[in-house]
Write a structure and sequence with these properties.
single chain, alpha+beta, six-stranded antiparallel β-sheet
């Protein structure tokens, strides 16, 4: 199973910068306006590296950050303990996780398990950046099985605090674990576990491509740093794990819109018609109901329940994927329009939104907003274990770990 290791990451020098000014959300969840705002916080904000004007600029800036000791190497092999405190709909959460090195494996090996398809074009930009800088600036998010949460017990007392950041309504903390016995206990436990990618499929695929590129230059050295990737991982069983659905707004032609609504009425029963303000109570009631979804037309929210005969048909064809409300809706969409959602995405006719309030704010009268009930992360695990892939943008793990806490250098050195 996966080999997990501590590593000597690179950290921002807290004598020279404030963490709140140099960290940022993952690059793929921010708008162009937000990118500009984060870059404006500090000339050393991580977006100046990860989203530089060009790859040569990123390389030059990184070298300057190193020369000026803005980022500095952590001299000892370390596991990085991360806490994320946040509130969601009236409940307080404290998600705990670890940042460590994980040996790369192709998806075909069945050790690192994906749950979504990847699009090759998306990885090209990230691969060029990685070649230019030799650094991974952010981690992907992985999940593992730990029913009794053994890997997290006592870490907050045993780890050496590094830094804390208040971001929006979240508090994120990073600490160092350098005790060799504790590191060995954690990494030994993880040897028997699969890792399920929760977030960052394209970044993982980029790391695989970079590994192949570096092997072509330096060979397949077993312990070279390019054989590994820094990952942020946490247990499936943590009650603080919050997996949200990704909602949609479709910008369809009048004919397409009418076809979709007609098909929804054919295969679904309208069970609720209400103002959008009632959605919060409704979605709690709908939790885990794979045969339900909601449609918002800019004014009214309508909840549909898929009729039993059609839902049975979906389950007979795909007993695993039909546990996802999104999968079932996409079958309705494709039967109504005769095209797949990927085609609508290429045509600029679909927006993906994690926050339901954004659906209500951004859906115009000529659009259709589609909202889905939450399902358990166990559904994801069951689908992945069957070696099946969920539809693109099925999940949104909330909140995201900030980028820039720990940087990982991958330029061909040994990790041991």
């Amino acid at each position: 199973m996966p080999e997990c290791l501590p590593f000597c990451g690179w950290l921002y020098n807290l004598e020279k910068v404030r963490l709140s000014e140099v960290l940022a959300p993952p690059y793929d969840v921010v708008s162009p306006e937000e990118i500009t705002q984060f870059k404006g916080k500090s000339p050393y904000n991580i977006f100046h590296l990860e989203l530089a004007e060009d790859f040569e600029k990123a390389r030059e800036l990184l070298q300057r950050f190193i020369e000026e000791k803005i980022i500095i190497p952590n001299g000892r092999p370390t596991l990085y303990y991360h806490e994320l405190a946040f509130n969601y709909e009236g409940r307080a959460y404290l998600r705990k996780g670890l940042i460590l090195l994980v040996r790369l494996h192709s998806f075909e090996e069945g050790i690192i398990l994906p749950h979504e398809k990847v699009y090759p074009k998306v990885t090209e930009n990230r691969l060029h950046l990685l070649k230019a800088t030799g650094f991974q600036f952010s981690q992907i998010y992985g999940l593992y099985e730990d029913p009794s949460l053994e890997t997290l017990k006592g870490l907050s007392q045993k780890a050496e605090p590094f830094g804390e950041v208040l971001f929006e309504d979240e508090v994120q903390r990073l600490a160092k674990i350098q005790d060799s016995a504790l590191i060995s206990k954690i990494t030994t436990f993880l040897k028997d576990k699969n890792l399920f990618i929760a977030d960052g499929h394209h970044r993982y695929t980029t790391a695989l491509k970079y590994k192949a590129y570096m092997e072509s230059l330096y060979g397949k050295g077993k312990d070279r740093d390019y054989q590994y990737m820094a990952m942020y991982i946490s247990p499936f069983e943590d009650e603080n794990l919050l997996m949200l659905p990704t909602h949609r707004i479709y910008k369809l032609s009048l004919r397409e819109r009418e076809s979709l609504l007609k098909r929804l009425k054919e295969v679904g029963e309208l069970i609720e018609e209400t103002p959008s303000s009632k959605w919060r109570a409704l979605k709690e009631y709908l939790y885990g109901q794979a045969d339900c979804l909601a449609v918002f037309d800019g004014e009214t929210l309508r909840v549909y329940k898929i009729r039993a005969n059609f839902f049975s048909e979906l389950k007979s064809k795909e007993p695993d994927l039909s546990a996802l409300p999104l999968y079932n809706f996409l079958q309705i969409l494709e039967s109504a329009l005769g095209i797949k959602e990927a085609t609508l995405k290429e045509q600029g006719k679909v927006d993906f939104l994690a926050r339901d309030e954004e659906v209500f704010q951004k859906t115009q009268k000529e659009d259709l907003g589609i909202l889905f009930p939450r399902v358990s992360a166990e559904i994801l695990k069951g689908i992945v274990e069957k070696k099946k892939l969920m539809p693109h943008k099925s999940t949104y793990f909330h909140p995201k770990i900030l980028t820039g806490f720990v940087l990982n250098r991958v330029n061909g050195h040994s990790v041991k």
